[in-house]
Amino acid sequence: MFPNEMPWYKSKVIMGVIVSILSKVLFVTGVIGEMAPADQAQMVDLLVLVIGGIGDIVAVGARVVQKEAPKITAGKPKNTGMMSLVMAAALVPLLLTGCATTGSGSPSEISDRTRADEQAALLVTLTYTTASRLGTTLIRSGAVTDKAAIRKFGELDKAAYQAVLAVRAAYETANAQSFADALTNARRTIAGLDEITKGNDP
Amino acid sequence: MNIQSALNIIRVADAAIVSLPTFAKLIGDIKDALSSDSDQETLQAAYDDALQGAKDAHQAAQDAVRDHG
């Protein structure tokens, strides 16, 4: 179980907050004098034990009356909220270093090379999309308001998109040199797009 | 922290949450692209999809620039 999947009633933080609020309410209404920190800590442990125990009993009861046990599968990791955006931002410069280029060789080498070229073209396209979407999100959210920076982003986005299309065109002509040049150009323009998204002057 | 800063953070967080499915898909696509298991046919199909995604992203970016720039 991930820590953030802990039931709320077993969380000492939640219980601490509840006890703190309760003690304040009781103090303000004059029911009791202000509760000492040591007493609050004891109360937290007691509440976690009691409410957690009730939760466990309910869970066991639910399992007893359940007709079928749920199938346990490995499952995909859950979307980690803001982490996806952070990961996307971190991926852009990382991916830009990961684009392979072409060269001559034996038929098997050529086959591998074709696959590597395809992978490189795909990666550069996905990297552009990530950088472009990041910039768009920052502009739409109001995180970037400087009009000059927004216009610069627009120009770089156009250049990067054209570079991505040039990679595709070079890939289709299967000319190793033009493909390598197109990849290099695409990487350079996407790096510029990434820099402006970070607020730097590319 | 003043109220304006707090509002800005909330706006960015809100936009980030709205965009999460897009970024989650992109990260998944990148992971698949980097996988050594992908055959050429799969890569070709993924490349075609990626180009369509790039076109959409470019359009969205230009719309954002037009609206805010």
Characterization of this structure:
The complex is a heterodimer of chains A (202) and B (69). The two termini of chain A are 44 Å apart. Chain A has helices spanning 12-28, 37-65, 82-96, 107-141, 147-173, 176-197. By secondary structure, chain A is an all-alpha fold. In chain A, 29% of the residues are buried. Chain B is mostly helical. In chain B, 88% of the residues lie in helices and 0% in strands. Chain B is built from two helices and no strands. Classes of the chains: A mainly alpha (202), B mainly alpha (69). The A-B interface holds A 79, 81-82, 84-85, 87-88, 91, 95, 98, 114-115, 118-119, 121-123, 125-130, 132-133, 135-143, 145, 147, 150-151, 153-154, 157-158, 161, 164, 168 and B 8, 11-17, 19-24, 26-27, 29-30, 33-34, 38, 40, 43-44, 46-47, 50-51, 53-55, 57-58, 60-62, 64-66, 68-69.
At a glance:
In chain A, 72% of the residues lie in helices and 0% in strands.
Total helical elements of chain B: 2
Task: Write down the overall mean pLDDT of chain A.
Answer: 70
Name the poorly predicted regions of chain A: 73-82
Structural class of chain B: mainly alpha
Main beta-sheet strand count, sense and barrel state of chain B: none
The percent range for helix content of chain A is over 70%
Dominant shape of chain B: elongated
CA distance, first residue to last residue of chain A: 44 Å
Secondary-structure element series of chain A? HHHHHH
Please state the oligomeric state of the protein chains shown: heterodimer
What is the number of helical segments of chain A per DSSP (H or I, 4+ residues)? 6
Largest interface: A-B, 45 and 41 residues
Q: What does the radius of gyration of chain B come to?
A: 17 Å
- Beta-strand percent range of chain B: under 5%
How many beta-strand elements of chain B?
Answer: 0
How far apart the termini of chain B lie comes to 27 Å
| SSE pattern of chain B | HH
Number of E-type strands of chain A = 0
Instruction: Tell me, briefly, the overall form of chain A.
Output: elongated
Portion in beta strands of chain A: under 5%
Q: Which runs of chain B of at least 5 residues are low in confidence (pLDDT < 50)?
A: none
